[in-house]
Specification:
- The protein is of the alpha/beta class.
- It folds into 2 domains: 1-189, Rossmann fold (3-Layer(aba) Sandwich), CATH 3.40.50; 190-292, 2-Layer Sandwich (Transcription Regulator spoIIAA).
- It contains 9 helices and 11 strands.
- The protein has helices at 25-41, 70-78, 86-94, 100-117, 137-154, 172-181, 211-224, 243-255, 269-277; strands at 17-22, 45-50, 81-85, 123-127, 159-166, 185-187, 191-196, 199-206, 231-241, 262-265, 284-287.
- The protein has an 11-stranded mixed beta sheet, sandwiched between helices.
- The protein is elongated.
Length: 292
Amino acid sequence: MTVDAGPRPDAGSPLAHALHVADNEHAQRVGTAAWVDRELAFGAKVYYKGWLGDDGRVEKHWIAGPEGTRRTREALRSGQLEFLDFPTLIERCAEAPEGLTAGLHRIQAEELDRALAEGWPSVAMTQESSRRELADDAEVAEFARQEGGYDTLVGRAPLRVLCQLNSWVENEVHVFESLGVHHRRVVDVGWDVALEDGRWRLRGDLDAHVARRFGGALAGALREKVTGGDLHMDLTEVGFVDVACAQLLVHAARAEPECRRIVLHDPPRLLRRLLDVLQRPASIEIVDGDRP
């Protein structure tokens, strides 16, 4: 699997901050290696944050070995790619007098500013799954604030960010909340979504295997609409939706205020049938044939 985020977006685009979801270690490495290799080919300065073994040696990390690309290994030697291990990152954030989240944001901003000052035309940042429990609402909110730091940075600089979610490592809460935070751009197993031109555009198949992750992304998209406005979902390129994902849509629509709708643009025929069986609420509207 490779992560194809399409054309490099302008600064401030929601596509600049993406989440890559993988079900196994191999898929995570292949997708991340392809993304890093592409950013290096574009001439970007790349910052990689990941987990090292007990010996703490970067050359023992997979990205510096045969599973990484030749360009990546050369970039590590030349300095175009910099690696920072998570324990060191956490230690540096903990030392910040302004607190962990503000400390992380300062480190990210310093990396970005340093790369631009050195003359790099663009910057890319990626990090492996953080392995956080997200055990309570306060921790979930802190996680969202930390990820929001990337959104702030991409709004002011030529920056691309790839967050990595390894579903076999994280617990269900972390997976659900990560999809919610990153709902504007998700590349998952068999499906992906991008917020473009005011529409939540989905591609691929939505089956029981990805239902909880789809539910997390849907919850995040609806949270962003909390101040009002309908959620428009473009389903033109969705081939299959099973009953589990259809039920998520129905439950979400019933929980929304009466004044707000979930508008499905060109949904597949099977989803229409499932919604009829599930007694589609009036807050789910179906619109056909209005593709720009």
